[in-house]
Amino acid sequence: MAIYYTYQHAGAWEAANACGYLFGDPNFGIFQDEDYAYHRPAYDWLAGQYEQRTKISLRGNYPVWLSKTKPDVARGGYLELGEPGVVLTVELPDSHVLAVEGGYWTFALNRYFLSFEDREAESEEELKQSWEKMFDRDWCESIVNEYPGTNTKYHYLVDRIYLEQVLDVTTFIEEGV
Questions:
Q1: pLDDT attached to residue 80
Q2: Are 158 and 105 spatial neighbours (Cβ–Cβ below 8 Å)?
Q3: How many independent structural domains does the chain possess?
Q4: What is the rounded distance in angstroms from the CA atom of residue 128 to the CA atom of residue 117?
Q5: Nearest to residue 71, comparing CAs of 168, 163, 162, 161?
Q6: What superkingdom does the record give (predicted)?
Q7: CA-based torsion, 123, 128, 133, 136: positive or negative
Q8: Within a domain: residue 168?
């Protein structure tokens, strides 16, 4: 068991209270904004990786993103300006949580080949296989050792958060930067 934090739209939290748990509901995802709809294939891939690696079904939804540090919502940039949100402090079983290196997640998000070789992926399969490195903590740490100007920043994924796993709820209104 470990403590994590997640920020969410107030509407997602209201929906969680109605059904008893918070999940990665596509209705509250970034795909609602057509400017970000092109990210859906990366999130679909990530959902598949979560299910494959944890053996836990997401039931057609997306995982919930977590952090080990509490989001500083006062600095802004978490939701749309004026939108109400919540920061949840949760305690979750290790078996349901999957670590992902956040910087390398952007490779999948933008369909870049995750390699330090000077070449492109030769196939879609090789491209997607390269992204799997973001789950390999040893590989991620070895890159930091090889390229001292880099660092790692892990994020975490979980299938759902039950209300009884929530230790604290902090409300906020997105004020921007």
A1: 79
A2: no
A3: 1
A4: 16
A5: 168
A6: Bacteria
A7: negative
A8: yes
Classify residue 14: in a domain, yes or no. Answer: yes
Say if residue 133 is exposed, middle or buried (CB neighbours under 10 Å; 0-12, 13-18, 19+).
Answer: middle
Whether 137 is covered by a domain: the verdict is no
Q: How many helices (H) and strands (E) does the chain have?
A: 5, 8
Give the pair of three-digit tokens for residue 176. Answer: 């921007």
Among residues 127, 123, 116, 101, the alpha carbon closest in space to that of 45 is found at: 127
CATH number for the domain that contains residue 96: 3.20.170.20
Q: Supply the pTM of this predicted model.
A: 0.91
Beta strands 160-162; 84-92: pairing state: unpaired
Question: Residue 121 is which amino acid?
Answer: A
Q: Is residue 139 part of a domain?
A: no
- Quick one: tokens of 48? 């598949």
pLDDT single digits (tens) 119-174: 999 999 999 999 999 999 999 999 888 887 888 999 999 999 999 999 999 999 98
31: domain range? 2-103+153-173
Dihedral angle sign, alpha carbons of residues 53, 54, 56, 60 = negative
Residue 17 is encoded by which pair of tokens? 């209270």
